[in-house]
Task: structure prediction
Amino acid sequence: MNTNSEQNATQWLNPDILVWARKWRGKSLDEVAQKFKKSPDKIRQWESGEAKPTVKQARKLAAMYERAFTEFFLPEPPRLPQSETIQDFRLHRTLKEPASEREAQLIQDWAMAQRDSALDLYAEIREKPPEIDVVHFASITDSPEELATKTREWIRFGENKQFNLPNSSKYRLPTILRNLIESVGILTLKRSELTALGIRGLSIAKFPLPVIVLGGEADTAQAFTLAHELGHILLKVTAISGPRSRDYESIPEEKWCDQFAASFLMPRSSIEKTLGPVPVSPMAEFADEELEKIAGDFRVSPHAMLIRLMHLKYVAAEYYWQKKKAEFEKIEANASGFAKSKYYGSRYRNQQGDLFTGLVLEAWSSGNITNHHAAQYMGIKNIQNLDDIRKEYFK
Result:
């Protein structure tokens, strides 16, 4: 198609929809201009109707804004379903950029959609989704220590699955924990973009089939976030969790979930076997070498271990908050748990989780959904990659 015919094809394009779509996606004129290698004034001309993008450019805009190309020809913006409100426990929320907030909202909407799809898949294979028995739920007045012990028993997270892991395999702890959490009917998903948005994780406490979404943290940090978000599910609190701070600990739900996660991964009885009884007065500091050794024994990060020792009063709180916290955060900022796999099977299974992937494969293998629908559920464009996912899943 030549330039004139391309421009004619978009002559009925509604410039007001271009403005709406850009703002809906949280993009600035400068960001769009940079993507198209044009001046912001040129993008402004498209949005004012002074000029028209070509079909190719309009399709590129639609892909960038994650909207349907045909929406650009509507007389007014489409009516979209209202996103569900989710408690945001990140601090300084008023300082967040609109674009970042839009990104966070899109991930939340995606997680909600994955849950709906999983429920549809259960219906396709004529099975009921698992229900969490009421005895496993909690409130913030309950002891996080006691509930952590009961929860480990419930999901069959025996000490051998954690403490007997070889050092060379300790990176597998989040995967082991994730599979155990999914075995009781909790979807676990991953979106590495969360970390850049200042989000440790988010939980959707809707039943059946609640959801936990992890970000792009290092492996040892992922295990703690998994346990923290599991605490949210047991409290029936749908929420976004942010970076840890002293102010953050003043939020009752977040303090409880952190204590639950620490108790879950580092049981008090096991700590006392290693270090002996809690001292009468907390130690002023804790040697790095010993901290790393104990953390290694529990297959957690030194950061998580020091928080646990602070809560148990083995070490003074000021040692963590004033000396070690910034040091740990600097190390974690340079670490990543998301080396992108070149294999579709690994990549998409990791993002969707084994529970969701298994549902898709079962519905597909049994003929209840088509190849095309299975690919849509998994979020892939090339149907041939389904075989790669199946091989990876059953490997």
In short: The chain has three domains: 3-73, 108-333, 344-394. The chain has a mean pLDDT of 88.
